[in-house]
Amino acid sequence: MSSTTLTERPTRSTVFDGLSRYIPIGATVALLVAMYLGGIARYPNFDNPQLIPDLFIGNAGLLIVAVGMTFVIISGGIDLSVGSVMAFSTMACAWLTVDAGLPASVAVPAVLAFGIASGAFTGAVIHYFNVQPFIATLAGLFLYRGLTLQISDHDVSIREIDFFSWGMERVEFGEPRDGGFSLPYISFIAFAVVIVAFVVLHYTRFGRSVYAVGGSEQSALLMGLPVARTKISVYAVSGFCAALGGVIAAFYTKSANPLAGVGFELDAIAAVVVGGTLLTGGAGFVLGTVAGVMVMGMLSTIIAFQGNLSSWWARIVVGVLLLAFILLQRVLARSGERKRKA
Amino acid sequence: MSDEPIVQMRGITKDFTGVRALDGVDLTLRPGEIHAVMGENGAGKSTLIKVLTGVHSPDAGRILLGGEPVRFHSPGHAQAGGISTVYQEVNLTENLSVAENLFAGREPRLGPFINFRAMRRRAAALMSDIGVDINVAAPLSSYSIATQQLVAIARAVDIDAKVLILDEPTSSLDRDEVAVLLRVMRRLADSGCALVFISHFLDQVYEICDRMTVLRNGSLVGEWATAELPESELIGHMLGREVEALDAIERRASESAPEGGTPLLSAEGLGRKGSIAPFDLDIREGEVVGLAGLLGSGRTEAARLIAGADRHDAGHLAFDGRQVSGHNPRTAAARGIGFCPENRKTEGLVGELSVAENMILAMQASRGWARAIPPARRAELVDEFIAKLDIRPADPDLPVANLSGGNQQKVLLARWMLIAPRLLILDEPTRGIDVGAKADIQRLVAELSAEGMAVLFISAELEEVTRLSDRIAVLRDRELIDVLHEESDMTTERIVDTIVSRGGAE
Questions:
Q1: Which one of B79, B84, B95, B300 would you mutate to disrupt binding with A, by most A Cβ within 10 Å of its Cβ?
Q2: Total count of domains within chain B
Q3: In terms of C-beta density within 10 A (0-12 exposed, 13-18 middle, 19 or more buried), how is residue A312 classed?
Q4: Per-residue pLDDT reduced to its tens digit, A61-93
């Protein structure tokens, strides 16, 4: 028996590997900490206990949408429609409550159901007609933006203020002067989305199938995994998250702007990539995406504290970061291949 | 062994855009037997398997599973019906762990959540069951192809398959790994599973299989019990012609190779750190030099240095009496060194381009992009080489990815023959291809060297090396240990002795 027993040690050197796959997310977290410490050192009041919670208020929508995007990107796809779906959802909340006169308790679930359905439809188009995700979701980007503007080309105020005020009601954690802070309900919705997404992605069959499809769709098919269901589901998840992001925006602004969320899909993709998810699919983390969103939020905060910088600097820095992270991923992948050959 | 068949395929016919891949083929599988499906590349083995596993649906014919007619529309569907497949290319996902690959889609769960601890425990048990001791929590990509293959088999085994199909599972495994695999196969058969084994290695087929079905050109030749069909007859059935081709290719140093004189290529202390120790090697015009050694002995590494595919960091290389500097694939090709690498799919051929385009690549590169080869001349050349090398199907416009392995190899050879190199380096040109194509390629090597071309020939099959080579360089542990040149040394035993004795001395 022993003569035919094979023993092989794993080579710890690939992008998917236990150690090096944590390098990008480690870099993101280190960057976040460095930015925070740098901010404290440089600006008075940067150590305000409300600063970090504020990141989760202003970026709750981005966080939710980016989490949905994480599913899509890990599966090897991309979803460009999320910004438009989000704007359409906010507008639909306004339209359903104002013009159709529906109660918010009906309008909001309807909008969320629409997000799931539109995502599932996009996923079905991508899978069954073998359309590039880029093109299929680009169609969604134009379609839903057009529909939004068709409903109204100007801002619409949302009725049922009672309901939509609920989202911004704050929960206090201690007294502000004792280092306490407060968070509105929308932040808790975002946290809930993150936790559910984390558990689903890492601890359920569906989640592991998402990784398998992203690793190799052909193999996943031959292994007998439900590839069609998985691909359709990730776009449905992304659609749901985009619609929920739209509802959050309704809570936040109490009005619907038809041009809200232009370019939002790109912010979400940037957050996902900065969070260490591989753009080619098959590897990534939900918590990485959280870190990615926080880096982007922290950037805007620092620029606001600086006061004399244009807000476009956030974009410039994000551009540089993206490039750095993509190069880092390539370098890791390549050193992995080299070590494996040797 | 029960005689009640588990699978009966009857009159299976399948057409691909006008080409009949299968024509009324039958296949019968019984529980507890290992059944070989034999045939040349392009005989229809893969298509038959893909019909059985639901990748393709047949245009005619029926499939009975346990006496009931079935029609699978996807591999997942076939798997649910108890038919699992392990393919030549490992079809697992590298980004997931070994354990996750083993249990993908059927993970042990606690409520809705995957029980990773139980999954790892069962995965470790599964792998040690088949004699593989690895860390199942590590990603699959951190293991060798051979181990990945065994993981794929373990997965298929554990799915409680009634029928397990192994499509060329051994082509990337070494001897020990093959032994593990064959043992696992026998045990599975004993437990009542029906196995289909597809392999080019006739010795493995004869060692393990109870019965075989032979296909040729998409048609059924027949079904035999292994014990009743001697190897020579089997080859005859596969090729449909009396095969003396292999035996006829016997050539010896005395016939063709000039002794002495300036070598065409001369390596002196050529080496590369971490790849191969410095070695000396001469190759003369009209000479076939074989490189023999076990997998990982440095055969490919030596060839890559000579071809300029890797940069050497020690020693000198002289070609045609002149020192070579700035050696890379481009300058090597300009000097007249052609290199057919080991992995034809990823390093040699451009799968999406046509047969003609692939053939013409090196010639066009040597002329420069600005001077296109006239279409008429090109068609003439391509047709000439398709005929000369017997490339099938003889369609110059077919994407090369659609050809079988043997025919792809011939296209690669044709590419270099077009520019008439003075030295041709062939790294495993006959690996994974059928007997007929193998004979064609061996004959070609003999012919080319008779015409004065120098050939550096690498093969894992020692018989092939001894049959073709004038001299044989023997490698072991990334070191060239001896060059055999006496005619009496050109035997498999002598090579093995050399490898073994040098190993023991150190």
A1: B95
A2: 3
A3: exposed
A4: 999 999 999 999 999 999 999 999 999 999 999
Is A132 within 8 Å of chain B by CB? Answer: no
* One domain for residues B354 and B331: no
- Hey, is B121 helix, strand or coil? helix
- Using one digit for the tens of pLDDT, what is the confidence trace for A152-187? 999 988 877 777 777 778 888 877 777 778 888 889
Residue to mutate among B74, B91, B96, with most A CBs inside 10 A, is B96
* Chain A: residue whose CA lies nearest to B179: A4
Nearest neighbour of B142 by CB, restricted to A6, A12, A208: A12
Contacts with B100 from chain A: Cβ below 8 Å: 208, 211-212
In terms of residue numbers, what domain contains B108? 7-246
Confidence of residue B246 (pLDDT cuts 50, 70, 90): low
Within an 8 Å CB–CB cutoff, is residue A341 touching chain B?
Answer: no
CA atoms lying within 13 Å on the CB side of residue B240: 12
Alpha helix segments (H runs only) across B260-374: 299-307, 329-335, 355-367
Q: Distance (Å) from the C-alpha of residue B470 to the closest C-alpha of chain A? A: 31
- B232 and B278 inside one domain: no
* Interchain proximity A204–B135, CB inside 8 Å: no
CATH of the domain at B491: 3.40.50.300
Q: What is the model's pLDDT at position B42?
A: 67
Name the residue in chain B with its Cα closest to that of A8. Answer: B134
Q: Is B89 exposed, middle or buried (0-12, 13-18, 19+ CB in 10 A)?
A: middle
User: Which of B199, B215, B246 is the last residue before a domain boundary?
Assistant: B246
Q: What are B252-294's pLDDT values in tens digits?
A: 444 444 555 678 888 989 988 878 889 999 999 889 999 987 7
Distance CA B187, CA B181 (A): 10
Q: What is the pairing mode between strands B337-340 and B423-427?
A: parallel
A155 in contact with B at a CB cutoff of 8 Å? no
Q: What are phi and psi of B208, to 5 degrees?
A: -115, -25
- Among candidate residues B420, B440, B470, the one where a domain is terminated: B420
pLDDT of B346: 67
CA dist A156 and A127 (Å) reads 37
Whether residue B36 sits in one domain with residue B182: yes
Q: Is the peptide bond before B230 cis (omega within 30 degrees of 0)?
A: no
Residues B416 and B435 in one domain: no
| Contacting A residues, span 319-338, partner chain B, CB-CB under 8 Å | 336
Assess whether B218 and B276 both reside in one domain: no
Look at residue A15 and tell me whether its pLDDT is greater than 70: no
Cβ of residue A219 closer than 8 Å to a chain B Cβ: yes
Closest partner residue to A204 among B80, B112, B144, by Cβ? B112
Confidence of residue A336 (pLDDT cuts 50, 70, 90): low
B48 and B140, same domain (yes or no): yes
In a domain, B258, yes or no: no
Instruction: Determine the residue type at A97.
Output: T
Residues in chain B closer than 8 A to A5 (CB atoms): 131-133, 180
Task: Note whether A49 and A179 are within 8 A (CB).
Answer: yes
Q: Any CB–CB contact under 8 A between A228 and chain B?
A: no
Quick one: pLDDT band at residue B1, thresholds 50, 70, 90? very low
Q: Which residue of A has its CA nearest to B94?
A: A215
Nearest chain B residue to A341 by CA distance is B144
Q: Which residue segments constitute the domains of chain A, with CATH numbers given?
A: 18-334 (1.10.3470)
